[in-house]
Recover the amino acids of this structure.
């Protein structure tokens, strides 16, 4: 447990001149405020750092003056700051008397509230999760949205479209369309960069399981981290995105977690593996259950599938999300579960066999989500399934241990699918969110401002002429 004196000693030992405090806005972006290191003392931890929270996108409160309370355990030297800088995450409180109170809309507080609710309801002591971070590493990106011009352009020398390039960097080792899965060097041109990213993540305390090239030929890669407790993993998710983006810029590249940045190539998901523990024992294992999963695990899956459509409003909150959730690109499109079937929204990995690792993954989320809200919503849906004993098998959600796309068309129509647009997901969230507000975990005001904001984004983007529309309709 770090103390103020520990931090002050670290400042002296490392010659730190600035301390940077990182906070999260509604969308899940980091914002920050920096103080001279000499100003860090006991009062910093007692009274916090004051700021105006009204610009962070949350629902209005009676007092927008807030304070950031640093988490000294999160202190780490920031490798991307030129000035020696110690960075910390933390939490946010609303200024009040006789004492400040946690801001219930703040993402970290929502995640902590979900964990408390899980324990209060005697469901479990811990939810352990592990996301898979898929992203693209590119050499160049350009985009513009003007009344007279709408365009975007991305490029990476490893893309198949560069086989005929006269660029001096072209050595002829491009990756074919959809041919990138576990591709080796020299085709895998970002291998060393990803290794450097993993070493930096270790400095931040984020343990990496592995990294590799993904299916998408034009620079799609993945870093998967080791499992950890839910709220801690939400912190780690912010760190992962920070390290990846800044490491890319440092290497004169650019990184994006957009679900579908490149047409007709595989998109970027953030599959979330999960399991519960109570009294030190795993709750998801049963030697005799389907795929060795317990009744509790099946009920948890039942809750996720029951609320799959509304969950998408939080786990897939961008218009671009639904360009990924289409058939043919190993993305989930079906509300159902199966062992090793990538077209179902819940997949049970066959390789996780021991009681302590037996789990399943939710495959629809992507990294445009606010991780604190997304992980908390997943937990709340699962708790609802456990409390209501929602059996996914008796509800017709599987197991789908066969190729869903090989079914006759009439049979395919009987199977429920995920929302096909952000508006459809928000419609579902508007109608189905009682499981989120249970125990006061998600404030109703937060959900209202979230839905309103995301609807405005969707409306704005839907009104912008698309380059493909010119190709399709200009000459009519």
């Amino acid at each position: 447990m770090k103390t103020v004196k520990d931090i002050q000693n670290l400042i002296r030992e490392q010659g730190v001149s600035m301390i940077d405090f990182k906070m999260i806005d509604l969308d899940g972006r980091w914002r920050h405020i920096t103080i001279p290191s000499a100003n860090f003392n006991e009062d910093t931890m007692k009274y916090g750092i004051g700021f105006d929270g009204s610009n962070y996108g949350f629902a209005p409160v009676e007092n927008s003056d807030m304070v950031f309370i640093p988490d000294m355990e999160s202190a780490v030297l920031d490798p991307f700051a030129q000035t020696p800088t110690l960075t910390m995450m933390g939490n946010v409180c609303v200024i009040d008397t006789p004492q400040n109170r946690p801001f219930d809309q703040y993402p970290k507080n929502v995640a902590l509230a979900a964990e408390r609710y899980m324990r209060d309801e005697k469901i479990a002591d811990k939810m352990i999760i592990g996301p898979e971070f898929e992203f693209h590493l590119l050499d160049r990106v350009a985009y513009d949205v003007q009344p007279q011009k709408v365009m975007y352009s991305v490029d990476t020398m490893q893309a198949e479209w560069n086989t005929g390039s006269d660029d001096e960097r072209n050595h002829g080792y491009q990756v074919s369309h959809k041919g990138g899965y576990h591709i080796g060097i020299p085709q895998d041109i970002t291998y060393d960069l990803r290794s450097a990213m993993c070493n930096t993540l270790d400095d931040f305390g984020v343990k990496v399981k592995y990294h590799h090239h993904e299916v998408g030929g034009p620079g799609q890669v993945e870093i998967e981290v080791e499992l950890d407790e839910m709220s801690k993993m939400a912190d780690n998710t912010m760190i992962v995105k920070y390290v990846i983006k800044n490491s890319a810029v440092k290497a004169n590249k650019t990184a994006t977690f957009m679900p579908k940045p490149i047409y007709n190539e595989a998109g970027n998901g953030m599959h979330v593996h999960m399991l519960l523990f109570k009294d030190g024992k795993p709750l998801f294992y049963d030697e005799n259950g389907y795929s060795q999963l317990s009744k509790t695990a099946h009920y948890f899956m039942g809750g996720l599938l029951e609320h799959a459509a509304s969950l998408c409003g939080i786990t897939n909150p961008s218009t671009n999300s639904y360009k990924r959730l289409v058939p043919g690109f190993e993305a989930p499109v079906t509300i159902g579960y199966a062992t090793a079937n990538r077209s179902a929204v819940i997949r049970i990995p066959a390789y996780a066999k021991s009681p302590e690792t037996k789990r399943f993954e939710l495959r629809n989320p992507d990294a445009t989500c606010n991780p604190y809200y997304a992980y908390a919503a997943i937990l709340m849906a699962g708790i609802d399934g456990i409390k209501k004993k929602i059996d996914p098998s008796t509800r017709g959600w599987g197991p789908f241990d066969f190729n869903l796309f090989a079914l006759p068309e009439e049979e395919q129509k009987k199977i429920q699918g995920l929302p096909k647009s952000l508006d459809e997901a928000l419609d579902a969230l508007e109608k189905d969110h009682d499981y989120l507000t249970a125990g006061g975990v998600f404030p109703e005001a937060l959900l209202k401002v979230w839905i309103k904001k995301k609807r405005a984004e969707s409306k704005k983007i839907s009104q912008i002429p698309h380059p493909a529309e010119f190709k399709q309709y200009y000459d009519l």
In short: The chain has a mean pLDDT of 93. The CA atoms of residues 404 and 412 lie 7 Å apart.
